Recover the amino acids of this structure.
């Protein structure tokens, strides 16, 4: 089964998502940073969030993807820090260089999933986000899909 793709903005939203996927019996999740997060959030901070999420609920496999927007230098920095994966928007020649460096460093390159396949915690009221996330999981990841 394909893992849910979820945009998280902090550790708390990631922990909430982990508990949601565990309740659905899912064994993996892919966390994405917000679009162009490299512009304001360093890869070291994102890596610490990633490590904390992996320890929070070890029964769920966590993959994290750091969105570097169009910033090639920040993508290279994220690769050097050892994030699980990155996403970057770049011209083909630049993308090829980043892809080569990522491959050598065992960092995955992701394209951001379409909005239908992506749950973003920031788009929902904090008091309702857990319920909305579980509804979203039910639509996209129930046994019948």
């Amino acid at each position: 089964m394909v893992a849910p793709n979820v945009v998280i903005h902090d550790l708390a939203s990631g922990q909430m998502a982990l508990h949601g996927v565990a309740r659905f019996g899912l064994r993996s999740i892919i966390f994405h940073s917000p679009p162009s997060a490299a512009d304001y959030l360093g890869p070291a901070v994102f890596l610490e969030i990633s490590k904390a999420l992996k320890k929070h609920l070890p029964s769920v496999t966590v993959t994290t993807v750091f969105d570097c927007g169009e910033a090639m230098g920040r993508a290279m920095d994220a690769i050097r820090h050892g994030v699980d994966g990155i996403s970057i928007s770049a011209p083909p020649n630049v993308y090829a260089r980043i892809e080569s460096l990522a491959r050598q460093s065992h960092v995955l390159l992701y394209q951001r999933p379409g909005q239908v396949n992506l749950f973003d915690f920031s788009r929902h009221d904090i008091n309702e986000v857990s319920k909305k996330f579980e509804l979203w999981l039910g639509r996209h990841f129930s046994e019948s899909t």
The CA atoms of residues 68 and 75 lie 6 Å apart. The first strand starts at residue 5 and ends at 7. The mean pLDDT is 89. Helices lie at 11-23, 43-56, 72-81, 92-104, 129-141.
